[in-house]
Write a structure and sequence with these properties.
Elements: H1 10-18, H2 21-30, H3 36-47, H4 52-62, H5 66-75, E1 87-92, H6 103-114, E2 127-132, E3 142-146, E4 149-154, H7 156-167, E5 186-188, H8 201-209, H9 211-221, H10 233-242, E6 249-254, H11 263-270, H12 272-286, E7 290-295, H13 303-315, E8 332-337, H14 347-354, E9 378-382, H15 383-395, H16 397-401, E10 411-418, E11 424-429, H17 434-440, E12 446-451, E13 457-460, E14 478-483, H18 488-502, H19 508-525, H20 531-547, H21 551-555, H22 558-566, H23 568-572, H24 586-589, H25 591-596
Parallel strand pairs: 1-2, 5-11, 6-7, 6-9, 7-8, 10-14
Antiparallel strand pairs: 1-3, 3-4, 10-11, 12-13, 12-14
Helix pairs in contact: 2-4, 4-5, 6-7, 8-15, 9-10, 9-12, 11-12, 12-15, 18-19, 19-20, 20-22
The structure holds flavin mononucleotide (FMN) and iron/sulfur cluster.
Iron/sulfur cluster is lined by residues 343, 361, 503-507, 510-511, 548-550, 552-553.
Length: 607
Amino acid sequence: MKHKPAVNSSHAYSIDHECSIDQIRSVIAQNRSDHLLHILHALQQQLLHIPHRAVAEVASHLNLPVGQVESVVEFYSFFHNIPRGRYNILLSNCTSCGYMAGGKNLLQLLCQLLGVVAGRTRADGLVSVDQTSCVGMCDHGAAMLVNDRPIIRLDSGRIERIAALVNAAVPLEGWPEEWFDVDDNIRSSGLLLKDDLVAGDGLHAMIARGADATLDEITRSGLRGRGGAGFSTGMKWQFCREAPGDAHYVVCNADEGEPGTFKDRILLHSYADEVFEGMTVCARVIGSGQGLLYLRGEYRYLLPQLQAVLARRRELGLLGRNILGQPGFNFEIEIVVGAGAYICGEESALIESLEGKRGVPRNRPPFPVTHGYLGRPTVVNNVETFSAAAHIALRGSAWFSATGTGKSAGSKILSVSGDCAAPGIYEYPFGVTIQQVLEDCAAKDVQAVQVGGPSGTLIGKAEFGRKLGFEDLPTGGSFMVFGQERDLLAVAVNFAHFFAHESCGFCTPCRVGTTLLKNGVDKIAGGHGTHYDVDELKRLGALIKRRSHCGLGQTAANHLLDVIQRFPQVIEQRLAHSEFEPYFNLDAALEEARRITHRNDAAAHLE
Ligand SMILES: Cc1cc2nc3c(=O)[nH]c(=O)nc-3n(C[C@H](O)[C@H](O)[C@H](O)COP(=O)(O)O)c2cc1C
Ligand code: SF4
């Protein structure tokens, strides 16, 4: 759940009054989409916040309960009911595109240069600076979003220039263009990234083969979901196709929120035709007339070009009515943009979000294949899964399954980041060893690799012979490299804060448990932990894993349990030499007193 500053700011109050009801209505009327998230984004962008009176207006415009709109504003971290600055700056606090790239110091420097406190808007309303979870730019060093646009390769020099431009109120259009240039950084290509699929080829092949035979090909290919869980794509499509209902939906999960993952960014940027083609193949197979692509809010900058690809596909007869002249083959794709919530990558939370609600995971069963979007049968697949499906429709199952391993057919696109000379995108046949990837990305003197992001697996040198695949090390694509100098406990602190921040708060084991994990690891990192605390963390981690409602809670302790099990020395050397230490830190509690008395000398500290 997001943590927002208190509402009763006098500044907020005055701006709220400055927004007339006519202004609010005009923003709502000008917005071309009737999706709640889009209207709220337009209000946020133009009025710099979502005033209380706008909530009622939006509710009445969309015929929704006021409480629903209110709760959505409260839930998503990109919506605010007190004004943000005209320059709304969000620095990534991801391990890769934040912490490892010196993000913490850059945040402090920026705040200092702009005279602003992180999380608050400057008194003149010009700028606000805050942190946000991974922005998917981990191959580009430290990164930030400024008014929805990513700026990459941050260092102290760039931060100084950014502060000067903000202070001089230079519009973003006047900032150096290269700061916004996000590269694909494709380092190796395999089945999907060779870029040899011409728009429409997959659809022609599917039409020639027929929908039934295409489903057979997808199933026989052994394609498994690339979002992490690895469910058989053919089976998923078949269940959905067989589910009764007057409407079926195809949903592409482009939420890509797992820290260290950015491969979907590249597929959407440079291979969008393949993704849309895969969705259209799926539509024909399951009998769907409507598709939705859920784009994470951090990738909003990709929206215009994605819309352009959709428009081109309509012109080519690859979308719309009677696709490629086939009577009754009607399919449209709408793009819905999220608003900063990692949990919305979980498929049922994503569906809730598509329906204009808080992204809270549903009870399952029933599964989306029978009760998904609007309660109708729905296929939810990852971006890469749809891309693979388009290729299989064209080239057949044998072409695909000839690559990879027995239970992991085809290739996997990895997002490689961290301590290596060549971060970027690497496509490999499944079965590649960790060692091979490390050699290819020129990683030297590696201490550990986090496979599959914070919710995945942390392994050390002794296990670099292990293979990527569902038989051994499954992954959604994140591959973070940690060199010998890297403090793995600091990494664990970063991950633990991420999960505590992103827990949606619905169930107690995760809501309370992730905060307790965070507190526990903070305590150890602060030198106050004991063996008792380590045992508590192990017990707590096992409990959260077992009792949480969805995958976020079920995996939130993985990273910490891995550090404790595989790198005990990292913990051991930070433990206090006593059986028990209270979490309460008396020295830290005296900080306010020191500030008031203007004392910070050694005698004013307890340690
Ligand atoms: C907390 C959480 C976040 C997730 N984020 C994503 C995501 O960003 N993209 C994705 O495709 N799947 C994500 N998933 C997995 C989805 O729930 C779902 O399994 C997937 O979209 C199905 O597509 P696939 O079968 O093609 O993998 C996430 C799951 C959890 C529990
Ligand atoms: S485990 Fe529970 S609190 Fe955590 S994200 Fe899932 S539903 Fe929300």
